């Protein structure tokens, strides 16, 4: 990859990753508002969370993955040549799959929960497990950032 192209892809990589982290922080704030706010605020927070979050989050995840793959394939780092890249690839794949199989299917229930709260009803469902996705994702993305900067563990056997 020519230096100018590499820098351009690296900028896109950092913007995608930064966007993903920002969306996770927003999810954390919405979960907090849903848990601690009065029923009207909580209802709004859960409806926003259930309606608008998954698509931008998945887009940012796929963009991070795609730009990361391009950087790996197009530079000396490779995809399976250095542990820090290989581990980041694994972590990013796991998080991306979790968005699709664990987060997305629960979103209609989160919207319903918000609608019931906003209508002054006592919701039947339990959405307390929503605290985990932003915590897990932010911890993993922070770890990936640390790996990217320190580049530990050297080369793999390949
Ligand atoms: C979503 C989690 C990720 C985060 C937080 C992340 C973060 C970063 C950061 C901060 C850098 C800049 C490091 C520097 O310039 O010293 C970087 C570069 C890089 N990332 Fe990622 N990344 C992620 C995912 C990936 C994935 C999935 C791959 C590969 C499949 C990848 C491959 C690379 C490569 C090869 C570079 C070096 C680019 C270069 O200097 O030419 N990243 N990443």
TrEMBL record:
Taxonomy, superkingdom: Bacteria
Keyword terms of this UniProt record: Membrane, Transmembrane, Transmembrane helix
Transmembrane regions listed in the UniProt entry: 12-36, 48-71, 83-103, 130-150
Protein name: DUF2269 domain-containing protein
Organism field: Janibacter limosus
């Amino acid at each position: 990859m020519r230096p100018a192209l590499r820098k351009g892809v690296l900028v896109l990589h950092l913007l995608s990753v930064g966007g993903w982290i920002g969306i996770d922080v927003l999810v954390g704030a919405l979960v907090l508002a849903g848990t601690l706010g009065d029923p009207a605020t909580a209802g709004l927070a859960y409806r926003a969370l259930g309606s608008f979050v998954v698509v931008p989050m998945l887009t940012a995840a796929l963009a991070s993955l795609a730009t990361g793959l391009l950087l790996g394939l197009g530079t000396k780092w490779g995809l399976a040549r250095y542990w820090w890249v290989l581990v980041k690839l694994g972590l990013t794949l796991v998080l991306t799959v979790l968005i699709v199989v664990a987060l997305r299917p629960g979103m209609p229930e989160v919207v319903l929960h918000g609608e019931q709260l906003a209508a002054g009803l006592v919701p039947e469902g339990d959405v307390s497990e929503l605290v985990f996705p932003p915590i897990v994702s932010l911890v993993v993305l922070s770890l990936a950032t640390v790996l990217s900067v320190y580049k530990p563990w050297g080369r793999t056997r390949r």
